[in-house]
Design brief:
A hairpin with a 2-residue loop joins strand 5 and strand 6. The protein is an alpha/beta fold. Helices cover 36% and strands 12% of the residues. The N terminus is likely disordered. It has a six-stranded mixed β-sheet with strand order 1-3-2-4-6-5, sandwiched between helices. It contains eight helices and six strands. The protein is globular and about 45 Å long. Helix 1 packs antiparallel against helix 5 and helix 4 crosses helix 8.
């Protein structure tokens, strides 16, 4: 069956009106020419297994509970994952790992994330990314990440209840620290170093937890295992008193 692309932004579970307005702004962004060209090229060329899909091919906003106390920050949408489905960490193996872990930890109502209308809802959690367009070789440039930071800042401003942030990978870790500085929040000196399972107090009420990114490069090689990922979200749950 052919999948069509909706003209409206992908709905977050129980989306608030301010977040919905922000999603609409994010999905219209064309500030990074290289990323615009790449996301649209991927959508035209596709891959054989998704030839019947009409790709989203736009920036991908965050997804989740507007009252979330847990914020998860990834790198960027996958070319044939979020860039295809229009929802972050949806339709690829990284998303399979992430949402299964969130389900096991009680932050998601189901362990799978296949498409925008698959019934997935997040509870007390919101998932977003440092960059919103699928980058070539899964690697946005520092300038592209800095340009995209405006959207992370805007989302964070609407997520007033966040108390724990999980960074998936070093780039996300660095993006979170830059976000906190941009918000005027205190950031420890020297800057906290990334390390899987590391825990950093960013402010009196915000804790940063680090995890390896659930990319195939990490999961296929055993650098990241399910118990390792579960341990991060178990710690997040405990910090939140759940």
């Amino acid at each position: 069956m052919t999948r069509t692309r909706s003209s409206s932004p992908p709905a977050s579970s129980a989306a608030s009106e301010p977040l919905a307005r922000l999603e609409a702004r994010i999905t219209r962004c064309r500030l990074c020419p290289r990323l615009v060209a790449h996301r649209e090229q991927v959508a035209r060329e596709k891959v054989a297994r998704f030839r019947d899909w009409k790709y989203w091919a736009r920036p991908v906003p965050g997804f989740g509970d507007p009252a979330a106390r847990l914020l998860i920050v990834g790198l960027a949408p996958a070319a044939h994952g979020g860039n295809r489905t229009g929802r972050i960490f949806t339709g690829d193996e990284s998303g399979n790992w992430l949402y299964a872990a969130l389900h096991r930890a009680g932050f998601a109502n189901q362990p799978t994330s296949v498409r925008r209308d698959d019934g997935l809802e997040l509870r007390d959690a919101f998932v977003t990314a440092a960059a919103r367009c699928a980058p070539p070789a899964n690697r946005p440039t520092p300038v592209e990440v800095a340009t995209c930071r405006r959207w992370l800042i805007a989302e964070r401003a609407l997520l007033a209840d966040v108390r724990v942030v999980v960074a998936l990978g070093k780039l996300a870790h660095d993006a979170v620290l830059a976000l906190e500085r941009a918000r005027g929040a205190a950031v420890p000196r020297p800057l906290p170093r990334f390390g899987h399972g590391a825990e950093h107090q960013l402010a009196h009420d915000v804790v940063l937890l680090d995890s390896y990114h659930p990319s195939q490069q990490n999961t296929f090689t055993g650098k990241l295992t399910r118990p390792m990922l579960d341990a991060v979200f178990t710690r997040a749950r405990r910090l939140l008193g759940r």
